[in-house]
Structure formats: C-alpha cells, structure tokens
C-alpha cells in the first residue's frame, strides 16, 4: 500500500484540467473493466457483470447509471471484454460501448503482469426542454437545443499486477480527449487517471478483501476505500468510504449451481457531504455471473472397440 501513495501524490500535481466526468460506482472492483482493461485477466473462464446505480436519490436530475460487461479467457493467452454503459445526468444522456483486449505475462511463479486496451464508441445527447423567463430559447445561442447529439471514438489503457494476494492497477481513460462540439455547446472528454490496489486475507471463516481506488483528472482527486468479508457460507458484509462524500455499508450473497457461480451485492451510500440535505443517499445493485468450462475426462480407447474401453 505504501508504494501506491507516492503515485497518488504525483497524479494530484500534474497540469490543470476540469472536474471529473467519469462514472462513479461503490463496487468499483466489479467496474474495473471500464477504467482499466488489463483487469479482465482476472477472469478464469467466462464472466459477466451488471451494475445499476441510482445516485443521490430524491435529488432532481440525479445521476442514473447502468453497466453490463462480459469477459472471456482464451486459454490464458488473451482476454476479450465487451461492455455497455448508460449514464443519465439531468438533460445529459451518454451511451458507451467498449471493446477491450488484454494480454498477461508470467514474471515469476507468483507474479503476473497484464496489459490491456479499450476501444470506445461514445454517444452524447442532450434531451430536455429549456424554459426561460424572457428570451425565447431559439434566440439565445448560449442555451443548447433539445435535440443535440454527437458521437466520438476514444481509447483507454492500463496495466495490472497480481502477486499472490496483492493486486495493483494503473490506468488512464479518454486518452484521445475527443471534443463534442455544436454551435450552442462544447463538451470535451477529459483524460482521467486511476490507481487500483487490493489485498486479500484468507481466513478459516472466509476471505477478507480490501480495495483502494484513487481517480483523478488532475484538477481533483477522489479516493475510495472498501473492505468486505465473504464467509464460507456465502454471505458477505462490507463497508466502504468515499472521502468527503459517503459511508457505504453493503451486503451480498454468492452461490454455486454446478458450473455456474452467481454473486450479488447491494450497497447504500450514506451521503456525508452537504448534499445530504437534499438527497436520501444512493442505491447500487451489483450482479456477477461466471461459468466454468466443461470438464473433460481422459480415457484410453482402441479403434477396434469404438471407445468402449475406459
């Protein structure tokens, strides 16, 4: 953990940009393919994630986010990922498709180094009716039209290190920084930087997982801390903290059905900022499904017996 702190400090003193734009989730470790494509190398077979987030419930124009992704492991040689994201904030409506690919290298028997890239297609739309007290909307060039839409292509890149029970990820999104421009508005996707850290303690009662995520667009930095305990009976209890923003209790449950593994999590953000005067907190549901490949048994056969000997 000490090795991560200097990098966080370095990210906070780079050149100035504008405030953060990237999506926020409490279960950021299940959202990692969005901001670090190299993390998909944790997938052992086929896995899918789904996240639904209602942020700042009760606040008019609050953010609502939906995320779906699927990752597949091709014989531990290359991993691919496809994700779909829908994010609505007030009149702003953004849809994103990300296609990720990652490769992993074995540095030592206990250390694995991975590299990954996302190719992104983003559609940005303003959908809303603006009401003004005097000047009609169509005569005011500073007010966007209600039917504006633009699209762009972008790239993300990241590296991911796994060493026994420790994980470290470094990544950046919006590398191209595309600008969506119309006569009445300009919207630029700013580059964001991420540091992901994690440590798991295996205990006789279950696994104690600890994660840290620091994200920055250089103008501002946000840090999330998260700890949870997955018991051997399948239940999970956890607590997360987003500095100067929220305390987040969470519960979960996982179950095996043959080769299918299902894990579900519910978290509730208790807002600690001044927004708690206007919001009832944030709700988030996370669902993860993994499917193991079929197991094949080896047997000796002779062509004269057409496979009847085992």
Number of strands: 16
Overall pLDDT, averaged? 84
Overall geometric form: globular
Task: Summarize the helix and strand pattern as letters.
Answer: HHEEEEEEEEEEEEEEEE
Instruction: Classify the helix fraction into a percent range.
Output: under 10%
Strand content: over 45%
User: Strand order across the biggest sheet?
Assistant: 1-2-3-4-5-6-7-10-11-12-13-14-15-16
The main pleated sheet reads as:
14 strands, antiparallel, barrel
What low-confidence regions span 5 or more consecutive residues with pLDDT below 50?
1-19
The radius of gyration is 22 Å
Task: Name the structural class.
Answer: mainly beta
| First-residue to last-residue Cα separation | 52 Å
Number of helices: 2
Topology (elements, then pairings):
Blueprint: H1 5-11, H2 32-35, E1 46-54, E2 64-74, E3 78-89, E4 92-108, E5 111-126, E6 148-163, E7 166-173, E8 179-182, E9 185-188, E10 192-203, E11 206-216, E12 221-231, E13 235-242, E14 246-257, E15 260-271, E16 282-291
Antiparallel strand pairs: 1-2, 1-16, 2-3, 3-4, 4-5, 5-6, 6-7, 7-10, 8-9, 10-11, 11-12, 12-13, 13-14, 14-15, 15-16
InterPro entries: PorP/SprF_Bacteroidetes
Protein name: Type IX secretion system membrane protein PorP/SprF
Keywords: Signal
Question: How would you describe what is shown here?
Answer:
The protein has 310 residues and is mainly beta. It is 4% helix and 56% strand. The protein has two helices and 16 strands. It has helices at 5-11, 32-35, and strands at 46-54, 64-74, 78-89, 92-108, 111-126, 148-163, 166-173, 179-182, 185-188, 192-203, 206-216, 221-231, 235-242, 246-257, 260-271, 282-291. The strands form two sheets. It has a 14-stranded antiparallel β-barrel. The longest helix is centred in the first third of the chain and has 7 residues, at 5-11. The termini are far apart. Residues 1-19 have low confidence and may be disordered.
